[in-house]
């Protein structure tokens, strides 16, 4: 049975225009999608001591994601306010809350070692713990998102076996060049997701491309995370890179048919809306 543990970020994606919020975050989403695809899946991270932190844990348990090593820390859970324009997500601002306060202990690393693959992300605040995670799991994938240049990506990529980058605005040749350049820095495989243009990947056997597939579009939230989960499980099963890409693109299309990533939306009361709008105003 395939297995995956996602370590790092979580949030509540708050759709202010709809007065709805959904569980989210790259690491958390990947754990859920892996479970839905039949893997033994776990999420290891920090949630707040408020009702929103408990809500995230409840959603994960409903999705058969193991949360045994999660920590509830004193403080508020993180949030990200988004607007939806023609189904595309537009982020307005965010607060990580307690989610970047994860400090891995020996028991955590021993638990990570029981999974065939670990996954983490740029927004998890684990830069100085990636080497430990990789050593424990044996294989580490990492989502560099679309703004990796704002981080110390040169150091991060040396700890990674499979690197994911989001670059929907690059041409095909530019995406090829990026993938080749990043793979030269250490990863066994580099994947570039290109939104509606599909995805491409590079490994020792060469470059592979996969166009996007038609889908019943509802919301793009979490589509990239759905791609990552399906790709990783196919890769773990030993499929060729072209098949991994195909499965990733196919599942990303399925995710685009769900609201808020993987669902579980709940109503946001007017008091919370006003609090979040005030916080956004303070952020400028």
UniProtKB/TrEMBL annotation:
Tagged with keyword Transferase: yes
Organism this protein belongs to: Pseudomonas cedrina subsp. cedrina
InterPro entries: Carboh/pur_kinase_PfkB_CS, PfkB_Carbo_kinase, PfkB_dom, Ribokinase-like
Carbohydrate kinase PfkB domain boundaries: 20-256
Protein's UniProt name: Fructoselysine kinase
Alphabetical UniProt keywords: Kinase, Transferase
GO molecular function: kinase activity
Family indicated by similarity: Belongs to the carbohydrate kinase PfkB family.
């Amino acid at each position: 049975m395939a297995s995956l543990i996602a370590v790092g970020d979580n949030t509540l994606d708050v759709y202010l225009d709809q007065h709805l919020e959904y569980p989210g975050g790259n690491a958390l989403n990947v754990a859920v999608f892996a479970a839905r695809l039949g893997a033994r899946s776990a999420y290891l991270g920090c949630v707040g001591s408020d009702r929103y932190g408990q809500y995230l844990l409840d959603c994960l348990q409903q999705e058969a994601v193991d949360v045994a090593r999660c920590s509830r820390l004193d403080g508020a859970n993180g949030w990200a306010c988004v607007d939806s324009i023609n189904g595309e997500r537009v982020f307005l601002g965010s607060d990580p809350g307690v989610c970047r306060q994860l400090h891995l202990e020996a028991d955590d690393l021993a638990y990570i070692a029981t999974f065939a693959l670990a996954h983490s992300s740029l927004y998890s605040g684990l830069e100085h713990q990636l080497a430990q995670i990789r050593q424990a799991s044996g294989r580490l994938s990492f989502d560099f998102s679309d703004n990796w240049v704002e981080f110390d990506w040169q150091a991060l990529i040396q700890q990674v076996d499979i690197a994911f980058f989001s670059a929907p605005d690059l041409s095909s040749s530019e995406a090829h060049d990026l993938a080749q350049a990043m793979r030269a820095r250490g990863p066994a495989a580099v994947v570039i997701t290109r939104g509606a243009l599909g995805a491409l990947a590079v490994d020792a056997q060469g470059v592979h491309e996969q166009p996007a597939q038609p889908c019943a579009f509802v919301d793009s939230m979490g589509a990239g995370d759905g791609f990552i989960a399906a790709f990783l499980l196919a890769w773990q099963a030993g499929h060729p890179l072209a098949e991994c890409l195909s499965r990733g693109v196919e599942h990303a299309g399925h995710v685009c048919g769900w609201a808020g990533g993987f669902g579980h939306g709940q109503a946001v009361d007017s008091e919370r809306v006003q609090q979040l709008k005030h916080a956004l105003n303070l952020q400028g």
